[in-house]
Amino acid sequence: MTTIAVIHTGPVTVQPIKEQISEQIPEARVINIIDDSLLADVRTAGHLTPEVASRINSYMSNAQAMHADIILNACSSVGEAVDYVRHFVTTPIVKIDEAMAEEASSIGRRIGVVATVSTTLEPTVRLIKKKAAELGRTIDVTERIAEGAFEALLSGDAAKHDEIVKGTISALTEQVDVVVLAQASMARLVPQLQGVRIPVLSSPQSGVAALKRALANMR
């Protein structure tokens, strides 16, 4: 049986990723490793810190010790730590947002990125620019923070979170060719955006699809 270890920085990414793995890789066994202090520490510092990167390394090393076949990093805020961890962990690691960034870069020149926290927005923008450069594409990125949405979600007001994020997306659609939702926790909004005239990309579906491709390439 294939074993997938998923590293989370909070509980909100567990369910959407679980659903995608159940749909796309139903035979897999999933180990969820959750530390909600990671994102809190990144937000306090305003950026990824060496201490957080070291803890990510520790969790991924533990996943390797558990004999996981592959590791999925579920949080864009700490995604850049994976580039460091890959020097020390031999188990293949997939970033949840890498396939989404590549898809966005291939769709259009004007890319909008929406996040509810700046610590996710900035690394997502850097990843999109990196993927665009790899594809030889010239892009313009427009960044938006959905102010107050993250705090609403933390307080348990999911409806308020959703309305703030949808309003931010709606205001951005006239300016860009594609919108990227920078956090996996925002993916559940996609079915509510059917009237939006441009593609809105979220990471769980494409991230797990990339995970499935990586597993196939290992066989």
Q: How does this model look, in words?
A:
- The chain is an alpha/beta fold and 219 residues long.
- The model has no long low-confidence stretch (mean pLDDT 94).
- It has helices at 14-24, 37-45, 50-65, 79-85, 98-107, 118-135, 149-154, 158-172, 203-218, and strands at residues 3-8, 29-34, 70-73, 93-95, 110-115, 140-145, 178-181, 200-201.
- Strand 1 (3-8), helix 1 and strand 2 (29-34) form a beta-alpha-beta unit.
- The strands form two sheets. The chain has a four-stranded parallel beta sheet, with helices on both faces. Strands 6-5-7-8 form a four-stranded parallel beta sheet, sandwiched between helices.
- It folds into two domains: 3-96 and 205-218, 3-Layer(aba) Sandwich (Rossmann fold), CATH 3.40.50; 98-202, Rossmann fold, CATH 3.40.50.
